[in-house]
Amino acid sequence: MKPEFNSEILINKIDLLCHQAGITKTKLFTDCGLNKNVISNLKNGSVPSVDKIAIIADYFNCSIDYLLGRSEMPNSQSITTGDINNNISGDNNSNHVNVGNNQLSDDTKTLVEMIQDLPLLERSKVVVMIDEMRKGA
User: CA–CA separation, 85 vs 75, rounded Å?
Assistant: First the structure.
């Protein structure tokens, strides 16, 4: 079964990465030597070549799979169960989970679980919204 291309996911990932980098899409496309109409072409059903997606992925130092919504990890590094066990500690009786040197409260754990339950596209929107809220604070 051939996976379908979802232009909305790619558009949202580009929006998110531009927002996080503090650049406009026009700057992105100029820096990458791509046509400024990439987004409007995507909205009109055009499927970009792998070369164009690779150029954008390289620009943001992320994987093509991340841009296409096939991975939640921006880069190609994988996380193993050992990595997770080494960085997350806590017990079932505790109200906090430690991530690295930081403790997560029950509220934060609930928020993380709620976000994890969302479809990938909606998660991207939440990340953008939270990032905008943090910058406004």
Answer: 20
